[in-house]
Design a protein that fits this description.
The protein is an all-alpha fold. About 95% of the residues lie in helices and about 0% in strands. It has one domain (about 30-130). Helix 1 (about 1-95) packs antiparallel against helix 2.
Length: about 130
């Protein structure tokens, strides 16, 4: 009876070993597939990284080209603001020299336009800084 019990245990152990061998082979196959997938994924990530660097370089170059345009617009805005202030001072002087109702009305209109232009230039400078 003892021999039969040992024989049953030996057969069960052999079946367990055979089952583990098959499971380990399957696990090995799955791990190889995962490794190849990771290699493929890494290659794709490297390609995307290179493309991103290329696009970033292109965007930086275009941004640098736009900087000169915005700088020119900034200078033009400053010149316009200076000219508007000069015109406003001349108009105020002319207004003071002539106190007629028509001059007052015209002076207010010009003054309003100059204020709007000044506000627009200041707003442009504000957005340019950002």
């Amino acid at each position: 009876m003892l021999e039969v019990s040992i024989l049953i245990i030996a057969i069960a152990f052999s079946a367990l070993v055979i089952y583990l061998i098959f499971m380990l082979k399957e696990a090995s196959t799955v791990l190889r597939q995962i490794a190849s997938t990771l290699v493929f994924t890494r290659q794709k990530v490297d390609e995307l990284s290179q493309e991103s660097r290329r696009l970033l370089g292109s965007i930086n170059k275009k941004s640098e080209n736009l900087d000169s345009v915005f700088e020119t617009l900034n200078v033009l805005g400053e010149i316009s603001l200076d000219k508007a202030k000069e015109y406003q001072h001349r108009e105020e002087a002319d207004f003071d020299a002539y106190n007629g109702e028509e001059a007052r009305s015209e002076g207010r209109t010009v003054s309003d336009w100059i204020s709007w232009l000044s506000s627009g230039v200041c707003l442009w400078k504000h957005f340019k800084r950002k």
